[in-house]
Amino acid sequence: MNVELKHQAIAGTTESSDIQIMIEPNTNEGIEIQLDSSVQFQFGKQIKLVIMDTLEKLDITQAYVKATDQGALDCTVKARTLTAAFRAADIDQDYDWQVID
Amino acid sequence: MMGQIQEIFPESFDLYYPQWQTLLKSLTLAPDDPVDHIYGLIEGDQLIGAVSNLGPIIKQVAIPKAHQGGHVFNQLISFIMNQLAAEDVFHYFVYTTPSHQNAFEHLGFDTIAQTDDLVFLEKGFHGFKYYLEQLKTKLRDQPTAAIVMNANPFTLGHLQLIQRAAQENPQVLILLVSAQRSLFTFDERLALVTQGTAHLDNVVIAPTDYYLVSNGTFPTYFLKERAPLQVAEKQARLDAAVFTQYSTVLPITKRYVGTEPTSAVTEIYNRIMAEAFKDKFPLVIQPRQTLQSQVISASKVRQAIQTNDLALIQAITPLTTYQFIVAHLTELQQRKEF
């Protein structure tokens, strides 16, 4: 699946057990993730890995991500990342939820 | 139990509006401060929290004591960020008291500047550091005089101040206030300043992007004292703290300001800035130009627009501003000003 980011988008909330993902097209090659997390020390690496992995499955290779985590589980991180990417790409139907697995 | 967030309309038919006014007053916030939207968190039939916005500025965060420190704050701030995102706003600002700094930082906000009384925070992709780096690329590496102005609209007083700075310094940076709380829109103000200074080749114009405000645009909602002079002192201190950061990245060697002999607020603003910049760079205060012993000011122009006094407008504005006003007179008279 090839998803092209067109503009900024946001998904998720900053409520407990959730993660807020802001995503933006990046003019430079690569994915840059800025993570604020209440569990940064324990799970910061893992959260970034899940975001990176989800974007790669959508063939997104250039993006800025600003994530504000309040202790979200991996499945939540994936879902929020997908939704933010779809919104940024103006995809509002025929979602490919397969990439979650 | 989680409540429901809904918009509150400042109208008599909205049952929650009186509750909202009472809540704000109980927290010494001002319900009459201009906002675009008000959102309230309702649990049962009780309002247990509220938040408002004016453009990208999040304000009037109001939570009763019993619900402070819990999920209400996160829920409200989160909600308003999503609402703003629906309007394509992805960069948020907040002025608050130091007691709320941690709560905002916990939600991913970064502090831009702070004083003993106030904190100014933002959340977005390209923050203050990026803005300053971008601004730096617009400037030559030469001693630079900075002027912050709203230019609502651009007058001969503004022009004289800029011309003086342009003569006395290799480069002039005009920082035009971005906030849309003026009779003239940002694009109109920018166009009039650009046209009015086209004959000066060492002038660079850039938006403040909400980082700096003029004393006409600073929000006063969060301050206990509604007395304008105490408000002015606090806002001036915070604004000076932000501007000091400009000077650490940019080659700013002087700041120029105008005076308004009739305005005590401007006087305080200038005094506080002079104190704050004392050991760093001089503050050059230029007396206002006068016309038949009356000071020239943008507020005079705005009054003259309402009273159809085109002769006065012609006398105190550059030709480009005058022509714009003549061409848009009816439209300007019908616009609502905060």
Automatic annotation (TrEMBL), chain A:
Chief site of localization: cytoplasm
Residues modified to O-(phosphoribosyl dephospho-coenzyme A)serine: 16
Keywords, ordered alphabetically: Cytoplasm, Lyase, Phosphoprotein
Signal sequence range: none
Keyword Cytoplasm on entry: yes
Keyword Ligase: no
Subcellular location field: Cytoplasm
Biological role stated in the UniProt entry: Covalent carrier of the coenzyme of citrate lyase.
Assembly, per entry: Oligomer with a subunit composition of (alpha,beta,gamma)6.
NCBIfam families: citD (TIGR01608), PRK13253.1 (NF009726)
Protein family membership: Belongs to the CitD family.
Listed name of the protein: Citrate lyase acyl carrier protein
Organism listed in the record: Agrilactobacillus yilanensis
Automatic annotation (TrEMBL), chain B:
Gene Ontology molecular-function annotations: nucleotidyltransferase activity
Keywords from the UniProt entry: ATP-binding, Nucleotide-binding, Nucleotidyltransferase, Transferase
Coiled-coil stretches noted in the UniProt entry, renumbered to this chain: none
Nucleotidyltransferase in keyword set: yes
Boundaries of every Citrate lyase ligase C-terminal domain copy: 144-325
Aminoacyl-tRNA synthetase found in the keyword field: no
SUPFAM superfamilies xrefs: Acyl-CoA N-acyltransferases (Nat), Nucleotidylyl transferase
Name used for this protein in its record: Adenylyltransferase/cytidyltransferase family protein
Organism: Agrilactobacillus yilanensis
